[in-house]
Amino acid sequence: MNPANQKLEKEITDRKQAEEALREREEFFRHLVEGVRDYAIFMLDPEGRIASWNAGAQRIKGYRAEEIIGQHFSRFYPPEDVASGKPEQELKTTVAEGRYEEEGWRVRKDGTWFWANVVITPVRDETGQLRGFAKVTRDITERRWAEEALRRANDRLKETNAELESFTYTISHDLRAPLRAMQGFADALQEDYADRLDPTGRDYTRRIAAAARRMDTLIQDLLSYSRLSRADLQLETVALASVTEEARAQLEADLRNRKAQVTVDEPLPAVKGHAATLVQIVANLMANAIKFVAPEVTPQVKIWAQEQKGWVRLCVKDNGIGIAPEHRERIFRVFERLHGADVYPGTGIGLAIVRKGMERMGGRAGVESEVGQGSQFWIELPKAEER
User: Fold this and answer.
1) Which range (14-23, 146-155, 258-267, 350-359) has the least confidence?
2) Are 214 and 280 in a shared domain?
3) Which of 139, 115, 148 is nearest to 41 (CA)?
4) If exposure means fewest CB atoms within 10 Å of the residue's CB, which of 28, 91, 206, 213 is most exposed?
5) Residue 268 sits in the same domain as residue 242
6) CATH for 217
7) 70: exposed, middle or buried (C-beta count within 10 Å: 0-12, 13-18, 19+)?
8) pTM of the predicted structure, to 2 decimals
9) Which pLDDT tens digit goes with each residue over 30-48?
């Protein structure tokens, strides 16, 4: 055999092998598509008539291949979509833009509707001639119902928040107003009529004023807790040194009255948090540190920070009365008090605000303590990225 014939024979053999390999790939792909059950995958001819049908199409749409192939794909659409020419317009858009995707209602063989995600792509031959369309449909009805349920829940939550805002306004203005009047009149009695009252009357007047002040403080703390639960906290880079300094400034009078000694070990790193909320939290921890101390003991507070694996822990340690192990979680709940207000004043909400604020910022809060050995409260937040 001459070289020319050998070359021709080799080209014929190579072409046959390539064609065989192509047929095998096409056969493999056909079996693969036909076996898919989670997606309806089928072909349309250029006019929109169904040319192929897989197991997923039968499961989702309800038709067997022999009863649907050759039918126009518009039969899957609601009547109003068919009347408006929507199926045909989708094919035109696919040809013009190279792809079409949407979510909408489709109709099964039994007449039931389902919410579908639909993708249509044109199929062309090697010359660019349109051969038809590939269509993939996914039943996402459950997802739609879940989204609808979430939307309704969000709407109800917005209504509840609006009602809560109105309730909060009522508490803040209408309920506190008579308390302030009670306190004002009680103070006036003490200042202007003390010489006309006997010791019992003066004691009653003092108790009325003190009770009004406690109630007003309680309302303010409840409002703070409520706002913290609902506020939209935008997290940013916050310098703990500035937070600690501002909290310390807010407590300046109390620190001076108690002759408290506060030590801050610097430097304090920056964290990802909400500045105003962090100031409130640190102020609450510092206030507790100087409050729950035996009467004859000078409060000593130490503040420092630790870094570990991308987190920053800010610690506030005191020389107070300490907390028994069984109460360490309880104290972070609303209205939980371990001592009477006559012994250690307070509303029982301060540490609840600490825990809620840390949760809202994606952080954590806790305490390490022993009775008679003081307490070390801590809060943790992600460390801010260095610029």
Assistant:
1) 14-23
2) no
3) 139
4) 28
5) yes
6) 1.10.287
7) exposed
8) 0.51
9) 544 454 568 999 999 999 9
